[in-house]
Design a protein that fits this description.
This protein is an alpha/beta fold. It is built from eleven helices and 13 strands. Helices cover 35% and strands 15% of the residues. The strands form three sheets. The protein has a six-stranded parallel sheet, with helices on both faces. The longest helix is centred in the last third of the chain and has 17 residues.
């Protein structure tokens, strides 16, 4: 089936978040014509007589058949792949940052987007950016614009700041969120496995010889990530004796961490600190003898030890999830949301050379 999602009669079954679509085969059976004739009639092809076309259209309407415009556009693209100007099925990258493109300043968000664009192109789609923060294009106008352009799939960028609610009506759209930030409305999301990351960081810290490993993390960031970093740390601590378990340094904001860091390290005799993304510059106040382990290493240069998130698999995986939903015409209504977690990998680095050795970065 090339131009509509598979399914059965909408009067008896449901699929995903809405009624299942009627197949072209069912329309052909009702109208008494071949499937190829039905396909041509639905496209308005001149080879099908007007009376026949009307009979087929009437049968399709009675059954509740509806063409998936995104899949139809994709098929047109594939049939025209020899042309550089071949049309591509449209998808939207929906951002809610101020219209100065501030989301591009966050390396992780930028990499999510780049991976999504690449994967969309590989699958025959075009990913266009739309901002609901632009004063000239409020959410209701963006929604109308998307529908006018035949865009039914939305890849939602991480929300700005501490926001967890997306101010956009997702009715009749398929949506996938990048990262954990979108809590309301409930949608499918794909994100780094933060819980696994802190466990791995703690275990590798132990393997390096550190014995009193602490976590420095802003409480606001922790809540935004559903406390997954913190809970992973708490579980990882069960590997050491109770006297070696360090309470996390968790002021409300990251700006509060530097003023509290030295006292916390001294009081608990911390020999290595696991710290969150966007905070490495704040960790420079730690003594050079204290190892520093990041939960968001941006590259494998060997400077910073810690977890490198697989931003490509997250961005590309978001597109894969979204395309799968569109192929089954699954929209955002009455279906429990899914969360797909992608594990990062450990990177050795000079910021955590082992106990008794002064680190050579972040000093």
């Amino acid at each position: 089936m090339l131009d509509q999602p598979a399914g059965t009669r909408p009067s008896t079954k449901k699929h995903g978040r809405g009624l299942e679509s009627v197949s072209m085969r069912e329309v052909a059976a009702r109208a008494g014509y071949s499937r190829s004739a039905v396909s041509l009639a639905l496209q308005g092809h001149p080879s099908i007589p007007a009376t026949t076309r009307q009979m087929i259209l009437d049968a399709a309407q009675k059954l509740g058949y509806r063409k998936n415009p995104l899949v139809a556009a994709l098929m047109r693209s594939r049939r025209s792949r020899k042309s550089q100007d071949a049309p591509r099925a449209p998808l939207a990258f929906l951002t809610s940052h101020p219209p100065n493109d501030s989301w591009r300043q966050a390396a992780t968000h930028h990499r999510f987007h780049a991976a999504a664009v690449t994967r969309a192109s590989e699958l025959g789609f075009q990913l266009d950016e739309f901002s609901i923060a632009n004063p000239a294009l409020r959410p209701d106008r963006v929604r109308a614009l998307l529908k006018a352009r035949g865009i039914h799939g939305l890849l939602i960028a991480p929300l700005p700041g501490g926001n967890t609610q997306l101010d956009f009506d997702l009715t009749d759209f398929a949506a996938v969120g990048l990262g954990l930030s979108v809590r309301v409305p409930e949608i499918d999301r794909i994100a780094d496995d933060h819980f696994f990351s802190t466990q791995l960081a703690f275990e590798r810290g132990l393997a390096l010889g550190y014995r009193r490993i602490g976590l420095a993390l802003a409480a606001g960031v922790s809540r935004r990530l559903e406390d997954r970093w913190w809970s992973g740390y708490l579980l990882a601590q069960q590997q050491v004796a109770p006297r070696a378990r360090i309470p996390a340094l968790m002021p409300e904001t990251r700006e509060e961490i530097p003023a509290k860091l030295t006292d916390w390290i001294t009081r608990h005799r911390v020999d290595a600190v696991i710290f969150s993304l966007r905070a490495p510059e704040l960790m420079k106040r730690a003594s050079p003898s204290v190892g520093l382990i990041s939960l968001s290493v941006l590259d494998a240069s060997g400077k910073i030890a810690g977890i490198r998130q697989d931003t490509y698999r997250i961005g590309a995986g978001g597109i894969d999830l979204l395309v799968g939903k569109l192929q089954h015409w699954s929209t955002e209504a009455n279906q429990p949301p899914r969360l797909l977690l992608v594990r990062g990998a450990w990177c050795d680095g000079a910021s955590a050379p082992g106990p008794g050795k002064n680190r050579r970065t972040l000093v």
